[in-house]
Amino acid sequence: xxxxxxxxxxxxxxxxxxxxxxxxxxxxxxAKAKQQGVEAILLPTVQASDWDQAKNLASQYGKYIxxxxxxxxxxxxxxxxxxxxDIDHLKNQIEQSLQDPRFVGVGEIGLDYFVxxxxxxxxxxxxxxxxxxxxQFQLPVIMHVRRSQDAILKALRKRxxxxxxxxxxxxxxxxxxxxxxxxxxxxxxxxATYDRALQIRRLLHxxxxxxxxxxxxxxxxxxxxxxxxxxxxxxPALLPRIAKQLAGIRGVxxxxxxxxxxxxxxxxxxxxxxxxxxxxxxxxAS
Length: 286
Description:
This protein has one domain: TIM Barrel (Alpha-Beta Barrel). Helix content is 43%, strand content 14%.
């Protein structure tokens, strides 16, 4: 089975490298991603206990994946483990991380109205408190928007959030346009590789190319073909193959698609762009 071209630079805007599934083989996971042309990965955190680990992973493996970056946040599915004091802790972590070029924003934050058993008010407390921090520090946000697009759009309109990414976007075309108007890019990945994902594929085909970014959400949201490959783990090395299918749905070449999604991600997360620029300049100087 053919793969995406390995000489292209690919970017994974959502990959949970700190997940337990990757712990035993992370060096190999990183090496395979690099081999497949993945030059940049964003690691979004989901709870306070992950923050230091994410920083350490970005520092340790950034020498292999030059664009390995992280964000700091509390995911809506982890609010039951969170303490209200974690918001103060997050503020302190952000202040300290502003000196780290691999820190690029706040996330993964948001609302989830799909999973049962999550207290809506508790979700909203952590979501709004983290949005306030993003506004205070003028940082982009990585947004979890599962069945919560309208509530999130309402919250964003009340604040001046510079930009961000609506991860695993699966809303309506009208909701997509509203996120775009607020300076957001929309994340597409393995979900679009399923034949039944008609709405996601329509969005991918019809929306402006300059609003689309690529992601794996690994180890979650595996692409369609993995179910036929013995339950293999979704990992960032699969991003080029996923992106090839996304480019086909979009109706553009891999080269055009790779360049566009890279530029879009850099626009959404300016600190990421600065890191890549400085890395490129350093390599040129040496």
